[in-house]
Amino acid sequence: MTQLSPLHLYLAAPRGFCAGVDRAIKIVEMALTKWGAPVYVRHEIVHNKFVVDTLKAQGAVFVEELDEVPDDRPVIFSAHGVPKSVPAAAEARQMIFVDATCPLVSKVHIEAERHHENGLQMIMIGHAGHPETIGTMGQLPQGEVLLVETVADVAHVSPRDPEKLAFITQTTLSVDDTVEIVAALKARFPAIIGPHKEDICYATTNRQAAVKAIAGKIDALLVIGAPNSSNSRRLVEVGRAAGCSYSQLVQRATDIDWRALDGIRAIGITAGASAPEVLVNEVLDAFRARFDTTVELVETAQENVEFKVPRILRAAE
Ligand code: 0JX
Ligand code: SF4
């Protein structure tokens, strides 16, 4: 038998599902129990193909727009949030709908509304076209939320009144990049009001901190997550910025480029907030099959956040 080469595998913690993802998936499962199939879901409930395929097999039907849902079937809005126009359209059609927007995203929506009521225009730090950005910007009338994606964008944004401004952020941004964008905003608009830190959530912050803790010890980092998962992609970038030049996103074990990992002695593994632990285990097993693997858990924080499902589903609990 050939001897397997030794590999030290640092497993980041926290990793994987956050409280908002847990809740969103539970909402779909409970809706299926309560109303039977099909239950429609507007947009991927969370950005993960495995999760979506599992729910599809149970009778969930995923669509991008509300127009694709028949009036007489329940519809769930994804964890990322929706513009105000979406529940309004569902109400107008007298549909049953359940909002699986993460409460930490809803908190940002409420923040934006409060500032708007106080006469402030908003600057949102986020990624153009991402459903959370679309949903958050869609809480206020057109033109009331201006988007900046980078420090460079700050120089070009033109608010109505620089004295009457507040900023909000997407929940899944890079903590370090956002600090720089906020600093640029404050330098250009000293009167701007913002949250204490930013709106980046606990799960995003903790997963990035765990990656930083292992980045200096490893030859390669694999982040389990989907290409359309913003928080997962940020983990890849955080790994790279922290000094691990081979930092890659993989959806599951079959995506791993084993040739690129030839000769490595230490690897880091983490998972985005929408990636299930079953895929982490699949990746660990793939390493165990190819290397004499020692797994070391690197835990930089403990999480005990839990969110209740909406009242309409609680009887099905
Ligand atoms: O693309 P995101 O990271 O915003 O979403 P994903 O991967 O579905 O993660 C969970 C939902 C996060 C909402 O804030
Ligand atoms: Fe909520 Fe944060 Fe998870 Fe997004 S990443 S669903 S904001 S807990």
Automatic annotation (TrEMBL):
Residues noted as binding [4Fe-4S] cluster in the record, renumbered to the chain: C18, C102, C201
Protein name: 4-hydroxy-3-methylbut-2-enyl diphosphate reductase
UniProt keyword annotations, A-Z: 4Fe-4S, Iron, Iron-sulfur, Isoprene biosynthesis, Metal-binding, Oxidoreductase
Coiled-coil regions, chain positions: none
Residue stretches spanning the membrane: none
Cofactor(s) for this UniProt protein: [4Fe-4S] cluster
Entry binding sites for (2E)-4-hydroxy-3-methylbut-2-enyl diphosphate: H47, H80, H130, T171, S229, S230, N231, S274
Pfam family, one: LYTB
NCBIfam families attached to this UniProt entry: ispH_lytB, PRK01045.1-2, PRK01045.1-4
EC number(s) stated in the UniProt entry for this protein: 1.17.7.4
Residue sites binding isopentenyl diphosphate per the record: H47, H80, H130, S229, S230, N231, S274
PANTHER family reported for this sequence: 4-HYDROXY-3-METHYLBUT-2-ENYL DIPHOSPHATE REDUCTASE (PTHR30426)
Alphabetized Gene3D superfamilies for the sequence: 3.40.50.11270, 4-hydroxy-3-methylbut-2-enyl diphosphate reductase, catalytic domain (3.40.1010.20)
Metal-binding found in the keyword field: yes
InterPro entries: LytB/IspH
Annotated dimethylallyl diphosphate binding sites: H47, H80, H130, S229, S230, N231, S274
Co-factor binding comment: Binds 1 [4Fe-4S] cluster per subunit.
One GO term (biological process): terpenoid biosynthetic process
Stated role: Catalyzes the conversion of 1-hydroxy-2-methyl-2-(E)-butenyl 4-diphosphate (HMBPP) into a mixture of isopentenyl diphosphate (IPP) and dimethylallyl diphosphate (DMAPP). Acts in the terminal step of the DOXP/MEP pathway for isoprenoid precursor biosynthesis.
List of catalytic residues: E132 (proton donor)
Entry similarity comment: Belongs to the IspH family.
